């Protein structure tokens, strides 16, 4: 069978070396880079992805000196004594026929360290430390440190380096007047401000010679005020090429930018248009990046001449076999990245080891493994939500006979609600993946069947796994049985039942999701790149510096008020890297947010409530949606336990709280790998 993606899998000749395909596994900081003792785990992580067929990989960022640390004693390559540990990584990759570059990343004012430095002593809005302005001599020394780090990477066996010049890190901070207030030869005119990256690339090329890959991550869209103009970006791109770069990778947005760049509400390949513009300006290969998670999209980018290569980072967290499956025509079995950020970026920025919501083995390759069972059992899994699907398919893969029960007529559980939320359409992909994996692993799927103890069916299994999820929590508020009150399940399944003025009780993740849904004219989110750009203020014409302009959000479909009992900021418990997106999105839709609410009554006119010692107020509304938490559905577990039938609780059936697919899928996988 011919390869269905001939352009994506065409080799790329770099002159001194050839990449076997056009896919780059982009840089991701996993947390394994920060300690020497974790390098065996890091090596296993990269080995699995090299074996999976990706053409070139880039490590998480390593600082060229202590001033460039992301965090104290974090990843760094500046001394010969640090080289040996990296050989574990490069040897593992090369044994599988892969290639790998080390990313050199100086955090600048983004560093969580009192030693951090920048172009000027201007504090970042996302870091607690104010940087020291680097001296003129310090700039020259830092350039040497980049060259030294690249040389050490070469000694460690890396095929090249990526110089991180985007996302608002150190190099970016020198490029723009937003953060560069210097008056020496590294400040003032753009010619002076762009000297730093050019001199770094020159110094690196001189140190490593000609037969070594240098990728430069160029910030093509700063998406902040006082960012680079398009002419400046082009000028820098051409200078970087002349200085000796092999490849130009695309960087999108500073970390402090108020435009989503990789979250699930960003359309696929939303920023490929700017890479296409740069491709017309330089002659070395350019790489498109951000929200590319599908081989069809990747193929079209290369085939249409938008870019020479495609960088996919998190898709290789989700499925290390992405490229091999695509080449074999098994796209339906790719475990697609849903861009949720919950286990990757949220973990990184919380100081935890990264992993993946849909693939809990990611970054745990030496600890979580699926091995054939020594004693095959007949097992029942009750509940075909994320936890049950994870458990059932893993058990079957190991050789157990598995029957998966769900009284619903489709698999997916709460994911069938999540996929209806505008901006969360990617959740369809996880359900698609598990539907195909059930067939692939031979799980006997029994939909429309309720597993009960009074039929005797429970006695025909060796063990039973209970994963039947949650049910919405009932509230004790006068008038809660009013016809205008709906559960969040009813609201998501039938939004046409909701009136024009809506009160949402409960402002956790579900409350925010329901508000997003009800503010849209339809259940479809922003699907076009142009619509996304208008909504978030991205200037496609690039007429303003940073391409960041006034947003033009669409009018909300309803007047929505979010209410919560807690007196804290609404959305405080949302994801670390996505919470601000949800809050900003609802602010654009004029959603009112009320905290510290005491609910007094629901009546025909609306919700009577009080905040603090204030007098009662009436929130006039046509509909009330309750999003006030969940309870576990684990009654079956108690019944089986009483009958001495071996059983296990996982997912929402074990612990409700906020709906947590990350925990549910991991629990299902871990249990199944041990039974």
Automatic annotation (TrEMBL):
Q: Which domain of life is it from?
A: Bacteria
Could you list this entry's UniProt keywords, alphabetically sorted.
Flavoprotein, FMN, Iron, Iron-sulfur, Metal-binding, Oxidoreductase
List, for all copies, the residue spans of the domain called FAD/NAD(P)-binding: 378-644
Report the cofactors: FMN; [4Fe-4S] cluster
Q: Name one GO biological process term.
A: fatty acid beta-oxidation, unsaturated, even number, reductase/isomerase pathway
Query: Which GO molecular-function terms appear in the entry?
Result: 2,4-dienoyl-CoA reductase (NADPH) activity; FMN binding; iron-sulfur cluster binding; metal ion binding
- Pfam families referenced in this protein's UniProt entry, alphabetically: Oxidored_FMN, Pyr_redox_2
Question: Which residue ranges does the record assign to the NADH:flavin oxidoreductase/NADH oxidase N-terminal domain?
Answer: 8-329
Does the keyword Transferase belong to this entry?
Answer: no
Question: Which family is annotated?
Answer: In the N-terminal section; belongs to the NADH:flavin oxidoreductase/NADH oxidase family.
PANTHER family annotated for this entry? 2,4-DIENOYL-COA REDUCTASE, 2,4-DIENOYL-COA REDUCTASE [(2E)-ENOYL-COA-PRODUCING]
Q: What is this protein called?
A: 2,4-dienoyl-CoA reductase
Gene designation:
fadH1
